[in-house]
Amino acid sequence: MKIISSFFALCFVCLNAFATDSPQTPPTPAPVPTPTPVSRVSIFSTTVDWEGVTGLSLHQYTGKIKGVDRDLVKQGLVLYYLDAFPCYGEASNVRVWLSPNGKPDHDLRLVCIYKPDSVSFAWRNATEDALEARTTGIITCPIEGDRNFTIDISKCQRGPDWKDKK
Questions:
Q1: DSSP state, 75?
Q2: Phi and psi at residue 97, in whole multiples of 5°?
Q3: Which of 11, 123, 127, 134 places its Cα 20 to 30 Å from the Cα of 165?
Q4: What are φ and ψ of residue 79, in 5° steps?
Q5: Mean pLDDT of 71-80
Q6: Contacts of 80 (CB under 8 A, 6+ apart)
Q7: What integer best gives the mean pLDDT of the chain?
Q8: Phi, psi of 107 (to 5 degrees)
Q9: Which residues contact 146 (CB under 8 A, 6 or more apart)?
């Protein structure tokens, strides 16, 4: 009887050892999908914590656009504020459309460490109800005033068109 008990105990130990030492087949990982090229990307501002970096406070600034440059405005002008230190644009107020007579659809709203001397826009000519499309180039505009500043479109400097930029 002792031999039979020993035999069963040995079988149990061997079976247990075999079960724990046998390599288990890992599950097959799901295939990684190939990214689909995106024709349009939505990008949020990449600003850093300018208050933390500079020790200065952020403040809201409002820019009223005035003036007419008929060669630039034409049938209408869409301006997209380009974030640049010391300011970044408030998301809902960084696109402004100017009518052919120079009347904007709303004001530009920025959050700044201090008042900038100028602001830059990507621009394109378009009617008010035109769909979003690629911009033509860049314009840089001096500003006048303080927290409530003005931008005179007739004083803006047109930079190179994007196709000419390298």
A1: T
A2: -110, 130
A3: 127
A4: -115, 135
A5: 88
A6: 94, 95, 121, 122, 123, 135
A7: 79
A8: -85, 160
A9: 115
Q: Which letter does DSSP use for residue 2 in this model? A: H
Neighbours of 71 (CB within 10 A): 8
96, burial (CB in 10 Å: exposed 0-12, middle 13-18, buried 19+): buried
For residues 66 and 142, give the distance between their C-alpha atoms in angstroms, rounded to a whole number.
12
Q: Which residues of 13-27 are buried (b: 16+ CB within 10 A; e: fewer)?
A: eeeeeeeeeeeeeee
Write down how long the chain is: 166
Q: How far apart are the first and last CA of the chain?
A: 92
Whole-angstrom Cα distance, residue 98 to residue 17?
Answer: 80
Is the bond leading into 86 cis (omega within 30 degrees of zero)? yes
d(CA 90, CA 92): 6
pLDDT at 9 over 80: no
Question: Are 80 and 105 within 8 A, CB to CB?
Answer: no
